[in-house]
Specification:
The complex is a heterodimer of chains A (282) and B (285).
Chain A (H helix, E strand, L loop, with lengths): L3 E2 L2 H23 L4 E7 L3 H17 L2 E7 L5 H12 L6 E4 L9 H7 L11 H9 L8 H12 L8 E5 L6 H10 L3 E5 L6 H5 L4 E4 L17 E4 L3 E3 L2 E3 L4 H4 L5 E2 L9 H15 L2
Parallel strand pairs in A: 1-11, 2-3, 2-4, 5-6, 5-7, 7-8, 8-11
Antiparallel strand pairs in A: 9-10
Chain B lengths: L2 E2 L2 H21 L5 E7 L3 H17 L2 E7 L5 H13 L5 E4 L9 H5 L13 H8 L9 H12 L8 E5 L6 H10 L3 E5 L6 H6 L3 E4 L17 E4 L3 E2 L7 E2 L4 H4 L5 E2 L7 H19 L2
Parallel strand pairs in B: 1-11, 2-3, 2-4, 5-6, 5-7, 7-8, 8-11
Antiparallel strand pairs in B: 9-10
Helix pairs in contact in B: 1-10, 2-10, 6-7, 6-10
Classes of the chains: A alpha/beta (282), B alpha/beta (285).
Amino acid sequence: MTAELIRGPVVEKAIRDEIVKEVYEIREHTGKRPGFSIILVGDNPVSRTSAADKEKMAEELGYYSVVNNFPATITQEELIAVIGKYNNNKEIHAIRVQLPLPDYLDERRVIEAVDHHKEVDALHPANMGNLILGEEETYIPIAPLACFKLLQFISYDLNGKHAVVVGRSNIMGKPMSVLLLQQHATVTTCHSRTTNLSEICRMADVLVVAIGRPQLVKKDWIKPGAVVIDVGLNRVGDRVLGDVDFEEVSQKAAFITPPGDVGAMTDTMFMLNTLESFKRNL
Amino acid sequence: MAEKLKGKAVADAMKEELTKRVEALKAKGLTPKLGIVRAGGRPDDLYYEKGATKTLGAIGVEVEVFAYPEDVDQATFEKAMTDVANNKEINGILMFSPLPKQLDEPKIRALIPVEKDVDCMTQAGAGKVFSDDVSGFPPCTPTACMDLLKFYNIPLSGKKAVVLGRSMVVGKPVAMLLLRENATVTICHSRTDNLEAVCADADILIAAVGRARMVDEKYVKAGQIVVDVGINEDPDNPGKYCGDVNTAAVEGVVEQISPVPGGVGSVTTIVLCKHTIMGCEAQNA
């Protein structure tokens, strides 16, 4: 059996087309458009590239965007004051403080300074709390959101199914587990300390892997007919490898995402959450 | 026959440790204090309030009750909660839930400052449990489960823990706390396919489903540790309580089991006390 591919770019393209249409229509009626702010501190080339990518995408989708890059001399109070300014700015519906921040800044306090209605990555405790409580007034963090869009694309019914999540980070593994539970799956969360990881993965009807270890998951870890979502994005030399051994596993799973496909959807998911925040304020 | 994981021994050990912490605070002129805010007075809540006042008092923690009539209006109750929130002498707040229907409960819960939210009633408190931010307090019952497991030296790292039940009061937070201790955690519930087999696969089974004696010999295996968090009205003995586990059916199979009553429930009030003391320590650090 060869797995059917769930292609990130295909799903992403469909979502972006929808966004463009919706933003255009809302602007026709109200003259308003979604806007976001990205705040960078220090000189991190990866963060800068990522901000530039989002600015470019903003232009394509019809969003307003503003990027601030502060030197690593800005004080905590100054940074919080900048955030406060964007909290009160009606043109801005999402505020992304690019992490990691330089060590001298208290990341937790900075994130908590963002108005949680504009904190679309769901790192703010109020958003995390609402996520775990199943309240609608929250955002789904971008990586789990991408996974859900992929599962939706194949119309997968999670009710009663056993989902195994490998990885327990606050931005991926844990929110993913909670969301799968809300869809009535039985959920097992595994991590680096799990014993018999392969045996547990073999129980999965849906396997979501986000542990950051290239090609960890092999063919004999997979239950025949499983759906495999690979969130891993590992750069090995000049290749991008997933956490799943794609060549092997695609011979046994029913559905699988190609390596790197989930990670490549995250900017679009950020745009989707920004749009959501914008619509809540119309 | 399974060993009983009794709550009393856990509570006694905690009381001793907490009494010392209160003495250290008192030497600095501080007395930890819990504020209980309520509208009306259900018999269950009054019973809990009486027990908590006695238990916390014995450890040297004060309790002040802010009682309002059941028909209290929103503005009055909001003002009451705000005053307690701003009262520097009060280190922890417990509010009995659900509130009477005329009150907007989410709005009132949001008035509790997260540093005083000793039973995890706020969104931010839940968020902190979820993200392993230890400046927030997990709810008392799941914390009592963890304290019981710790007291009896039950290893968790790398073990398969299965949580039966996905409530916000017990199931989900206890899953997060088990994950923090490096257990591999499965949450299952009424919709789970092959529920019995999933539970029987556990090294540690936490029963928090709220159905009297549901967990019988089909849900367990030899060598297993079972923590029973259920408090249900006993269908066979009106006026009595029983757990989620059918003890008679499983005690010949499993290794260790916490009884109901006399298990997790006996630790919960001590956890409330611990959280109030921690609040006092953190707020005066």
